[in-house]
């Protein structure tokens, strides 16, 4: 039997936070957007992290399958990445003139990412996707952008929906939404908007929340690529979430096509804050023309960390490693569910697996199972895909399956 | 930012549509209806229509206004009907003019009573019975307004377009629950909540929490963290209903 975690200090900290911070914890890491169902099962604040674990302020340890929602790809506090960052910090980080690390990092990305002729750096995934949209509009002198329903491309106004607080109709007036995997719909919108579409933007596969993740249908991306080329629209791949977990050369390379622009963040520097927009040569002048920068965008420490991270990912052949670990884990979880008569569905890539208990379409049972896992020290979420990282050991995977089994046994006892 | 046509749906379905519940909860209102047996129809050109049926101290509401009603109030456009609700337009019945006394002696006092509960003073809310009736009516009105906005308002329809089929239970403590059903992105309030298969829930800890949220004194997202608001099930349904709730405040301000 695993210990059931208690969260006394987390609760106290949240009360403090709620007094001075909107929502206490806002955004995806907060209890509302993070879908803490019920809140009693989840820690609110962390104290430290190492490898594949984090510890909360109550001292509870978690095997972490959210990896800070993606950035942790090698393991928290990876010694090689941290050493590279430390050395650079001693030399300087945020300086009036950028460091040569910036050039080295761009060169490394151009050598690594199949569709990249150049790299442009910022801080968050949203900076990269917004840069891509600006670049596409600057190049084409067109307004409209095609999205695939279920997308997430950040939080800038153009990425949000018309009914979100603070968003104006004008912010999203040039957005066109079509279903994922629907090439007929894409044909139609190109026909109906001749000469008006600046770009098509999509994640490499549909990893939306609250629904099974959906891979591209055979030939889907190749058709999208062809239609974009024929209509002189820019094809943008938002690889912020999946980037480097499927293919170090980019997820477009993994699915057999070439993006014009590709956005990276999360796994790029193992938690150091940097994002990158990579693009084709024909878009370099358009990117150069933008008025687009930020106070910390050219800081050197994250560049040094990114270089070390990419080199280590290459050495480990990381996508293969993560896929293998992910497949093993998911097979164990499905087996644990079967043992207690439950139908656990796994979708998406094994390195970014999404879980859903199919026994209850309302997801309440799924939320209950996830909460029982979290209470026992395995950090899953009930609404979002998960993330594998390189430091997960065989023992971690075995412990995770054991916790999952125990959580299923609790559900079976409770519900008969 | 608001559409008079959508407001006319809210005024009829949510505000006047709360009179049946008012009569059920408030003995003074029930006494006002008394022995009257009258069907009051309302038809708004380019907007909604409906009928309030009064009988034996009770009232019921149905959508659509047929020719059988005893009194009929017709409005040439939504703005005229909205004017009646905010007191700037005096309606003249197009049918049942001889029953005008029912309007002045029963219907208008009922709407005044409803207003007292829906726009209460702080002092009035100090009375527990008044608080209970007021909060129940407000909850009912908001839930109905969510459906009007999700079905009729351009931005509300965008939110509803993301709501998958199912039944979302909105409740306050153990004492109060309403169920919004979504079917093909059209929303309706369930007439028989016990029969629905609930796919998502948003539960306020108690009526006080519900009241504080309605009055804008606390925030729903922050309240999830404190446990004062609990969500479960198909949370995307709750998310999208919350986005419509934001617009309810805009229309009812």
Verbal overview:
- The complex is a heterodimer of chains A (about 425) and B (about 250).
- Chain A is α/β, with parallel strands linked by helices.
- Chain A folds into two domains: about 160 residues, Aspartate Aminotransferase, domain 1; about 240 residues, Type I PLP-dependent aspartate aminotransferase-like (Major domain) (Aspartate Aminotransferase, domain 2), CATH 3.40.640.10.
- Chain A contains twelve helices and 13 strands.
- In chain A, strand 8, helix 7 and strand 9 form a beta-alpha-beta unit.
- In chain A, helix 2 runs antiparallel to helix 9 and helix 11 packs across helix 12.
- The longest helix of chain A has 22 residues.
- Chain A is globular, with a radius of gyration of 22 Å.
- The relative contact order of chain A is 0.16.
- The mean pLDDT of chain A is about 95.
- Chain B is of the alpha+beta class.
- In chain B, a hairpin with a 4-residue loop joins strand 1 and strand 2.
- Chain B is globular, with a radius of gyration of 18 Å.
- In chain B, about 50% of the residues lie in helices and about 20% in strands.
- The mean pLDDT of chain B is about 95.
- Chains A and B meet through helix 1 of A and helix 8, strand 8, helix 10, strand 9 and helix 11 of B.
């Amino acid at each position: 039997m695993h210990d059931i975690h208690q969260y006394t200090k987390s609760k106290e900290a949240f009360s403090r936070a709620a007094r001075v911070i909107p929502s206490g914890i806002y955004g995806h890491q907060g209890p509302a957007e993070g879908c803490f169902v019920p809140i009693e099962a989840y820690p609110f604040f962390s104290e430290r992290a190492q490898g594949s674990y984090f510890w909360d302020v109550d001292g509870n340890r978690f095997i972490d399958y959210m990896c800070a929602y993606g950035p942790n790809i090698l393991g928290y506090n990876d010694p090689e990445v941290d050493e590279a960052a430390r050395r650079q910090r001693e030399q300087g980080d945020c300086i009036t003139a950028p460091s040569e690390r910036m050039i080295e990092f761009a060169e490394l990305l151009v050598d690594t990412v199949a569709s990249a002729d150049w790299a442009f750096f910022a801080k968050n995934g949203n900076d990269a996707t917004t840069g891509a949209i600006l670049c596409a509009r600057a190049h084409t002198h067109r307004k409209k952008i095609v999205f695939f329903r279920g997308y997430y491309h950040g939080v800038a106004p153009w990425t949000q929906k018309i009914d979100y607080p603070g968003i104006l109709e004008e912010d999203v007036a040039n957005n066109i939404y079509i279903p994922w995997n629907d090439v007929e719909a894409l044909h139609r919108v190109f026909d109906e908007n001749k000469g008006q579409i600046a770009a098509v933007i999509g994640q490499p596969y549909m990893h939306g929340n609250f629904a099974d993740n959906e891979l591209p249908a055979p030939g889907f991306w190749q058709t999208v690529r062809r239609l974009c080329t024929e209509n002189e629209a820019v094809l943008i791949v938002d690889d912020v979430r999946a980037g480097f977990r499927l293919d170090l050369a980019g997820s477009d390379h993994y699915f057999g096509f070439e993006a014009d622009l590709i956005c990276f963040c999360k796994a790029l520097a193992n938690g150091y804050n940097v994002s990158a927009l990579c693009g084709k040569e024909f878009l370099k002048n358009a990117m150069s023309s933008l008025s687009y920068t930020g106070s910390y965008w050219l800081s050197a420490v994250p560049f040094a960390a990114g270089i070390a991270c990419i080199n280590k990912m290459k050495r480990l052949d990381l996508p293969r490693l993560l896929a293998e670990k992910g497949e093993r884990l998911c097979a164990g979880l499905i087996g644990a569910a079967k043992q207690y008569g439950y139908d656990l569905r796994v979708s998406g890539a094994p390195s970014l697996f999404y879980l859903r208990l199919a026994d209850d379409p309302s997801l309440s049972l799924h939320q209950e199972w996830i909460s029982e896992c979290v209470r026992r020290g395995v950090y899953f979420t009930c609404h979002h895909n998960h993330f594998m990282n390189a430091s997960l050991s065989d023992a971690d995977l075995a412990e995770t399956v054991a916790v999952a089994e125990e959580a299923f046994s609790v559900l079976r006892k409770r519900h008969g | 930012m608001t559409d008079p046509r959508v407001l006319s749906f809210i005024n009829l379905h949510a505000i006047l549509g709360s009179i049946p519940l008012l009569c059920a909860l408030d003995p003074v209102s029930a006494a006002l209806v008394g022995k009257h047996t009258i069907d009051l129809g309302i038809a708004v050109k380019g907007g909604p229509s409906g009928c309030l049926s009064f009988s034996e101290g009770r009232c019921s509401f149905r959508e659509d206004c047929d020719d059988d009603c005893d009194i009929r109030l017709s409005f040439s456009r939504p703005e005229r009907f909205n004017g009646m609700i905010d007191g700037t337009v005096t309606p003249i019945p197009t049918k049942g003019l001889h029953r005008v006394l029912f309007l002045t002696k029963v219907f208008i006092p009922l709407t005044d009573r409803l207003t007292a509960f829906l726009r209460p003073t702080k002092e009035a809310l100090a009375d527990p019975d008044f608080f209970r009736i007021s909060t129940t009516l407000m909850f009912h009105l908001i839930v109905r307004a969510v459906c009007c906005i999700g079905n009729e308002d351009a931005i509300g329809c965008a939110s509803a377009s993301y709501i998958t089929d199912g039944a979302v239970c909105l409740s306050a403590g153990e004492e109060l629950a309403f169920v919004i059903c979504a079917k093909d992105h059209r929303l309706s309030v369930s007439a028989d909540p016990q029969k629905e298969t609930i796919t998502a829930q948003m539960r306020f800890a108690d009526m006080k929490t519900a009241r504080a949220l309605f009055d804008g004194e606390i925030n729903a997202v922050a309240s999830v963290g404190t446990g004062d608001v609990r969500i479960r099930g198909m949370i995307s349904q709750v998310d999208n209903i919350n986005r419509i709730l934001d617009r309810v405040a805009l229309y009812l301000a």
